Amino acid sequence: MTTSIASPGDAFSGAGPRHRRTPAAPRPVPRWWRDATAGAGWAVLLAVVALWVAGGGLQAMSTLAGALTSTGRLTGLLASALLLVQVTLMARVPWLEQAWGQDELARVHRLVGLTSFTLLLTHIVLVTAGYAASGPLGLWGTTWDLAVSYPGMLLAWAGTAALVMVVLTSLRAARRRLRYESWHLVHLYGYLGAGLVLPHQLWTGADFVDGPVATAFWWGLWALAALAVLLFRLGLPLWRSLRGPVRVLEVRPEGPGATTVTVGGAGVGYLPVRAGQFLQWRFLDGPGWSRAHPYSVSAAPDGRTLRLTAARVGDGTARLAGLRPGTRVLLEGPYGRMHAGVRTRRKVLLMGSGIGIAPMRALLEELPQEPGDVTVVHRVRSREEAVLADELRSLAATRGARYVQVEGRRVAGRESWLPTQAAHLSDVQALRELVPDVAEHDVYVCGSDGWMHAVRTAALDAGVPAPAIHLERFTY
User: Fold this and answer.
1) Whole-angstrom Cα distance, residue 440 to residue 462?
2) Which of 32, 340, 441, 459 is the most exposed place for a label (fewest CB within 10 A)?
């Protein structure tokens, strides 16, 4: 491991203190927001069960056919409610974003989605079996009769097929084989699936139309989910983009395999971006512009420009190098909780691996700090691949921070954040060697999933409380 501390004379273009706005004093994100939104989700499910009971769900279970059909109704209702919760979670509602963070929302979204999908399949099986048990057509005859004779059922089957496709392509094994662009396009079929299922529920679902309370509840739930998507996924980003155009100002290579893009324009001032956060970026440079890509800002926002630095790892990131000044940019966000507002302590440790150092560099520039408060650990395979290293050294010197490069290939044979030459140390020992009082720090982490998991585990074992560890995952 090598330690690099910049000298006061180091300088580089754009790395030192820029003429930028002074960020507002960091405001802690209220922790009760998270509890309140989780409670609202559980309240929705309790309301669904209560309406099922009030609609005679328990009384209908006196016979085998009735028990199958009634239980099938309940699983279908819960599946519908969870599907709407799932859609709302990823509607990029600012209050949910600030309470949970985009990566945590994505993980809850995936769990809720798999649960909803399982309940949906159970609903289909139980309702079909219940109808078959009470009629003369048998299982396959009943299946056919339900599909062709009941209003909206063919649409519901098409919606179910779309949801099956989304779920299958969301499994980790499938995700590894798909490009991000392909996966994102397929994932949009989830909205189609939800939309196709709706007519069946409203036309044939007794629980949706049996009483004014049930009708108001279900229509209100659907309307709330649709409004969240239209307002925050479409309306707000479109309004900001039209109100103030943003264009590419500069594109430059950033070491081997990385690109830095600076954008500016009136629209930047309408985005309340904090260092450490990310946005969804769309560059209107040709085919494929409609697919957004998440990039963290790599410099503290100044109210006039935003900057990203990304490694070339796929089609979207490879296109960055070919952007031309003047290209129009559409931005959504900001997203993520990895900013100064979640800070709990005076001392801060910023740890970035590879291109994960980009948000750390922005945080180093923006975090309120006294000399000695902040330590930056930059994990790289080699000095030649240390993206933004010169800027980090200069900023560290200017701000009185300590900058450390940890070089070399990862330790083989164990899950570790360390290089091979430090294999004789445990992850916790190495962390304490670099930062002896690490237990008194907030720890911000960004890098690959495995590396971040190893850092988080080491930080916890070193005595850092879980609420003081902040990280953002981009692989959902």
Assistant:
1) 10
2) 32
